[in-house]
């Protein structure tokens, strides 16, 4: 269990706080808007109304005791920037800050953010790959080049084993798991025979995965 401070209770902040709680973490949520705080009381461990651009308020939170501080403010970049800087000044060990634009990210990183997240961009890119590319059901980006994908079994593979198809050597991908009817079977053995009813969770370079998807 981690102790997490979430600053900003808009849609992103609320979803972040709720998921953190679901994962067993302790969350203190803060927002300057009383209505947002009241709406979040049933979601989080604790919630406070406060201005996180105020140095005295930040000092009162004991931010050095949190494992993670999330700056989820999306509608006021100046407040996000000041909050990020103050959190770091008062000893926050790790600050994750939300950015809407690259120029915002640069300033946030210069002023103490340890990691930047682009929620709208990342969701848009994920949906574009999922719905804009044939035979890719889902994906998680690891780096700009490598990702984890969920794909259907290519028709020519049905009835063949992983080793018969030479998946890693020929297609340059790694099969991390087989998924069938919402059940996950990790790390299938080389003798595993593809049935065609399952989907594959694979990791690879985006060029290799797209080449595989187009060659079906």
UniProtKB/TrEMBL annotation:
InterPro entries: NAD(P)-bd_dom_sf, RCK_C, RCK_C_sf, RCK_N, Trk_Ktr_HKT_K-transport. Residues 1-117 form the RCK N-terminal domain. This is TrkA family potassium uptake protein. Residues 134-216 form the RCK C-terminal domain.
């Amino acid at each position: 269990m981690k102790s997490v401070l979430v600053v900003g209770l808009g849609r992103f902040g609320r979803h972040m706080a709720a998921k953190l709680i679901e994962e067993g973490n302790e969350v203190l949520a803060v927002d300057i808007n009383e209505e947002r705080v009241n709406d979040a009381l049933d979601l989080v461990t604790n919630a406070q109304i406060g201005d996180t651009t105020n140095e005295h308020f930040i000092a009162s939170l004991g931010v050095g005791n949190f494992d993670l501080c999330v700056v989820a403010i999306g509608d006021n970049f100046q407040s996000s920037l000041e909050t990020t800087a103050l959190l770091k000044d008062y000893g926050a060990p790790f600050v994750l800050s939300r950015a809407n634009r690259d120029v915002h990210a640069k300033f946030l990183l210069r002023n103490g953010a340890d990691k930047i997240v682009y929620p709208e961009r990342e969701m848009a890119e994920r949906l574009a790959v999922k719905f804009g590319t044939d035979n890719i059901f889902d994906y998680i980006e690891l780096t700009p080049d490598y990702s984890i994908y969920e794909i259907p079994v290519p028709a020519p593979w049905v009835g063949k084993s992983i080793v018969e198809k030479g998946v890693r050597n020929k297609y340059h991908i790694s099969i991390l798991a087989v998924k069938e009817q919402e059940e996950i079977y990790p790390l299938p053995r080389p003798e595993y025979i593809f049935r065609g009813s399952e989907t594959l969770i694979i990791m690879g370079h985006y060029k290799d995965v797209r080449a595989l998807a187009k060659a079906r």
